[in-house]
TrEMBL record:
PANTHER family: BLL4672 PROTEIN-RELATED, BLL5781 PROTEIN. Residues 8-62 form the HTH cro/C1-type domain. Signal peptide: none annotated. This is Helix-turn-helix domain-containing protein. It comes from Nonomuraea maritima. One of its GO terms (molecular function) is DNA binding. Pfam families: HTH_31 (PF13560), MLTR_LBD (PF17765). InterPro entries: Cro/C1-type_HTH, Lambda_DNA-bd_dom_sf, MLTR_LBD.
Length: 255
């Protein structure tokens, strides 16, 4: 088992910061950072959280830091649909409903779908049933030949977009399951000769269902200052039409 000093050093190096950089950001001495990392000084729980905050350590990993130092975990992990997070659940559900008639969904840190609005159902009609068994993974549904992949006109661009986003996510906070998903569906050398994307926001997702073509772009919303691991690890993906024809399709379907 790693010591708290070893874990902090790991996160500092992952963020490409020197001990002096971290010390200045956290308003402590570089010597103190060095003593903590080498185990010659036992940091308080407040100091651990202070350093973790400057290192942008996810809440799940902050609990690990606290446990390694002999302190109790500080951040709870409660189900989004449970009583403790009922207000958050209602708020997220309201955001999804307000986005209709356009599609929106909630994903967790491994891109499993947690909640959707009604507009998403139209995209899942012809997806293979086994891909829709919980937990339904957004990346797998999108890239699997039995999912949406045959309907995505610019599949190479979409794969590049997902590779960029998940690669950045893994660089921030490693996760074995997400790494396995990345290696399965997004590793270099896939079928398409993917090109780097110029802009995540400007990259459309172009779907073709029969003779109809839909062009969408997406935005991602996260909770600003969550104190619960579940809220820290979910994101709302909202999709918007890129042209009048796509907008009219969703408006007409809603009517």
């Amino acid at each position: 088992m790693h010591t708290v000093g070893e874990l902090l050093r790991h996160w500092r190096q992952r963020r490409r910061l020197s001990q002096l950089d971290l010390a200045i950001a956290a308003d402590v001495s570089a010597r103190h950072v060095s003593l903590v990392e080498t185990g010659k000084s036992n940091p308080s729980a407040e100091m651990i959280v202070r350093l973790a905050d400057q290192l942008d350590v996810p809440l799940r990993e902050r609990n690990r830091l606290l446990l390694a130092a002999g302190f109790a975990p500080r951040y709870a992990e409660r189900p989004l649909g449970g009583a403790a997070l009922q207000a958050a659940w209602n708020a997220v559900a309201r955001v999804l409903r307000a986005h209709e008639p356009y599609p929106a969904l909630v994903i967790d840190r491994r891109w499993n779908i947690v909640m959707t609005n009604r507009a998403i159902d139209r995209f899942l009609t012809n997806v293979a049933p086994d891909l829709l068994r919980p937990p339904v993974n957004m990346v797998r549904v999108g890239l699997d030949p039995r999912g949406l992949a045959p309907h995505i006109v610019n599949l190479a661009d979409v794969r590049s977009l997902l590779r960029t986003r998940i690669g950045r996510q893994l660089a921030t906070a490693p996760d074995p399951e997400l790494t396995a998903l990345y290696e399965e569906l997004l590793a270099e050398g896939s079928e398409e000769a993917d090109q780097p994307i110029e802009s995540e926001i400007a990259t459309p997702m172009i779907f073709r269902f029969g003779e109809r073509e839909l062009r969408l772009f997406s935005t991602t919303t996260t909770f600003g200052t969550p104190l619960d691991i579940t809220l820290d690890e979910i994101a709302i993906e909202s999709y918007y039409p890129m042209d009048a024809q796509t907008g009219a399709y969703f408006t007409d379907m809603d009517r």
